[in-house]
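Q: Here's a chain of 157 amino acids. Please give me its 3D structure as tokens.
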Amino acid sequence: MVRKTELRGLSEQHHYGLVESRELRLASEGSPEAIERARSAFLATWKVEIEPHFRLEETVLLPEYGEGGGDWELIRRTLEEHTRIRGLVRRLEQLVEPADPTLLTDLATLLHDHIRFEERTLFPSAESVLGLEAWNRMHRELPQQPLTGSCTLKSTE
């Protein structure tokens, strides 16, 4: 799928979120050591990739989309899912004992489904609604590549 230039960086960042989602899901089926490695790796990526990505969507994309006549239900859903994901991440951060595999699976599923929603529904809607001035403003504020590129394909076996 070809994205508007201004959304390409966010869209590429989604790839990293999908990789992390996959790694969490795979680790949830593994040993306690695999779960802990995946938990630790995810939390590192959360801090440098995923949470900053959420903030960019919330402070740049969604306000422009809302002001440009975007679908408020899509905005609500995006913010609600961001909140739910943050809640699961907070639970993952606060764990003293090894993570419950169900927590990893729940987080992996929600993150995966959220990214697919944004790619298939929110971004296409934004592309159809926003005008040139909004795109020009966003071009100055949104990264045109992943924030750090720190996430790589890996195996948690």
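Q: Can you summarize the key feature?
A: DSSP finds five helices and no strands in the chain.
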